[in-house]
Amino acid sequence: MNFLRSCFCRSYQTGFRAALPVLPYREPTILHVTAEVADVCKEKGISSVLVVTDPGIAELGLPDPMVAHLKESGVARAVYAYTVANPTVSNVEAARQMYLDAGCQAIIGFAAGRPWTARRGVAARIAKPKQSLSKMRGVLKVLAKTPLIIAVPTTAGTGSEVTLAAVITDDATHYKYPINDFCLIPSYAVHDWKVTQGLPAPITAQTGMDALTHAVEGVHRALHVQVHPPAVRRGRQAHPRQPLPRLRERRRPGGAPEHAAGIVQGRHRVHAELRGVRPRRGA
Predict the structure, then answer these.
(1) What is the pTM of this model?
(2) Hey, what domains does the chain have and what are their CATH numbers?
């Protein structure tokens, strides 16, 4: 049975890989400041939007500048800021109801992680109002036109804003299931560094390292290179007491966080770890 299952999985993966070039994957249009969101809404004739975020981001006031620009442009907005750590079906349904009550025409996911999942869930339910989330579990079960989706990440560009997966938790059973569909990829992604800077300094540093981790993972997956633990261990033995540079909270004259330089330096050391060589001094 395990052999047959393995054969099926390998065949499925091979078939999916062969079909990738013709599947409807879309690359979001990149916006560079949150003020451009209002311009896109005006250009598309959108008069009302739903902003999905979480309590922490809302408390910090990070969405406020974008919301102010929307107000100045005459775009009504409803803000759902109650997304929990593991977004649930009730989260999605509450945000969906807010979307319908406000007569929204677009969804803006502001923050990262959990708001992305909730935003994708809302988009799927709006696209298929007569189908429950559990019925859309799996791959390519939505296959319908969604409202305009705009992603505003606060995670230093980890790429979470442009993925096609949502992981929903059932309130009653606590069972998690994925919903994967190309129509859940946003049409626009806002990469505004000022949004990341608005976070507390430790979180900014953590999200920078998260972005670095995703970048290293992406490079090695693209090159089909396996990183074997023994090779990494040999690299560590070459420089066992060289920690990453300390991330400082001071800011440079231009306003950019100084700990960003530490992240860049840390990148050289991580690549050295993966290659199993000693990094050059000062890198």
Answers:
(1) 0.72
(2) 23-197 (3.40.50.1970), 201-275 (no CATH)
